Amino acid sequence: MLKIGLTGGIASGKSTVCTLFEHYNKAPIIDADVIARHLAEPDKEAYAEIVHHFGGEVLQSDKTLNRKKLRQLIFSDPTAKQALENILHPKIRQQVILQSQQQQACYIILAIPLLIESKMYDLVDRILVIDIDPSLQLQRLQQRDNISAYQAQVMIDAQCSQQQRLAHADDIIDNNNDADALGKQIQLLHQKYIKISNGCQHSNSHGQ
Ligand code: ATP
């Protein structure tokens, strides 16, 4: 089974691409963001460590994590960002491995926003990077999160550069156009992945 690591900068279109892969091809998706959210729920592995490190100020009144506050904290303080990543990344890595082992398909998509930064590329066979012009990325991020250009730029700058991502890319999706253009590229990639997954029919674990 071919493991495709999908990555890209913030608001580059990872969720949109995953939805299209699922919609067109029923490709199984493992999403590191979903895993991270799950791990940080009360009583889950990472929760106690996060609260221990950051204190009660990152909790809401119902004791769930105040994600907005935590996000602000890590984007304004590189040490806090590193501490959160030290807690989460090994656990995310473990879960990604576990969930990958449970899949049966020609290929699966592992959506890992920090694939390059966390060096999780050893978990995948190919790296698929979403490319987007910096100005369009800024605009989509601002619109989606209803934030200022300054706030959006701080979030973009906290990640690795697009050049660093592209240097690791086996395949690239251009997300500078509309959803139709995106869909066409995903169909082509689907054909390619079926072909190189070696001997797999035009089907997957869902039998479609
Ligand atoms: P994050 O890094 O925060 O997880 P992401 O990489 O998953 O974000 P999306 O949420 O998929 O990015 O996309 C960011 C925004 O851009 C969304 O509002 C989405 O609807 C929009 N978008 C993505 N691709 C396109 C496109 N081809 N045309 C127009 N809008 C798009």
Walk me through what this model shows.
With 208 residues, the chain is of the alpha/beta class. The protein has a single domain (2-199), classed as P-loop containing nucleotide triphosphate hydrolases (Rossmann fold), CATH 3.40.50.300. It is built from nine helices and five strands, in the order E-H-E-H-H-H-H-E-E-H-H-H-E-H. It has helices spanning 14-25, 32-39, 45-54, 67-76, 78-101, 134-145, 149-157, 162-167, 179-196, and strands at residues 2-7, 29-31, 107-111, 126-131, 171-174. The protein has a five-stranded parallel beta sheet with strand order 2-3-1-4-5, with helices on both faces. The longest helix is centred in the middle third of the chain and has 24 residues, at 78-101. It starts with a strand and ends in a 12-residue tail after the last helix. Adenosine-5'-triphosphate binds next to helix 1, helix 6 and helix 9.
Q: What is the top-level CATH class? A: Alpha Beta
Helix and strand composition category: alpha/beta
Run of helices and strands: EHEHHHHEEHHHEH
Put simply, the count of helices is 9
Question: What is the CA-based Rg, rounded?
Answer: 18 Å
- Please report the distance between the alpha carbons of the first and last residues: 16 Å
- Helical residue percent band: 40-55%
Instruction: Give the strand content.
Output: 5-15%
According to CATH, what is the topology?
A: Rossmann fold
